[in-house]
Structure formats: structure tokens, C-alpha cells
Amino acid sequence: VQLVESGGGLVQAGGSLRLSCAASGSTFSINAMGWYRQAPGKQREAVAGISTDGASTNYADSVKGRFTISRDNAKNTTYLQMNSLKPEDTAVYYCMAHTELGYRYWGQGTQVTVSS
Fold it and tell me: Rounded to whole angstroms, how far apart are CA atoms 48 and 68?
């Protein structure tokens, strides 16, 4: 499984960005998907997760009500819509795919920078 993130960039506080994660390879083996982030000097943290069929989602408390995770299985793509961005959202955002056999695959990350 290969994952490629896109959509990061520089945005002012209060702005929006939509991240995309395109999966390729053995996509049939993917079940849950997730977005994580890592800010400088901090550990990687979970941001949002979504079930195989998209019916179930979960979010970190820090992003609830501002971020929305979704997926289009026909396109093998997962999205993270980020609204009302804050400077503390600045981080490298990573896409993660969880497979039926319990493996996790990661993308290369995309930088999100929110200026105040």
C-alpha cells in the first residue's frame, strides 16, 4: 500500500484547507484510515479516524467541530477538511492506512502552516 498526501500549505488563522490522501497498491486490504500530525518538538498525535465504510468517525478533542474526515472508496482517497484553523494546528500531517492483517502504512506527510 502506498499513500500520497496533498493539499497542505500556508493559511491564515481562521482559514481552511482540505488534505487528500490517495492510496494505491493493495488497496483492497485497507480497512480503517486515519490522519495524524506532528508538530516540531512534539510526538505524533492522532487527529481523526474513519471506518472502512465511512459510517464511523472519531476526532481528537482539539479538532472536534472544526475538522471533518471522509473517504471515497471508489477513488481510494481519504480527505481531511480543516476549518477555523489555528496556529496550534501547524504540523506535518500524515495519512495512515490500517489493513486487515493489522499492518499500518504511512504517507510521506504534508506541511500545514497556520499564521496568526
Answer: 8
Q: Report how far residue 33's alpha carbon sits from residue 27's, in angstroms, rounded to the nearest whole number.
A: 11
User: For 60-109, where are the E strands, in sequence order?
Assistant: 67-72, 77-82, 91-99, 104-106
3-state secondary structure of 32: strand
Contact 93, 11 (CB under 8 A): no
Tens digits of residue pLDDT in 28-86: 889 999 999 999 999 999 999 999 999 999 999 999 999 999 999 999 999 999 999 99
Say if residues 1 and 25 touch (Cβ distance below 8 Å): yes
Q: Per the structure block, which three cell numbers stand in for 46?
A: 492522532
Rg (CA), the chain: 13
What are the helix (H) ranges across 1-116? none
> CB count, 10 Å around CB of 46?
14
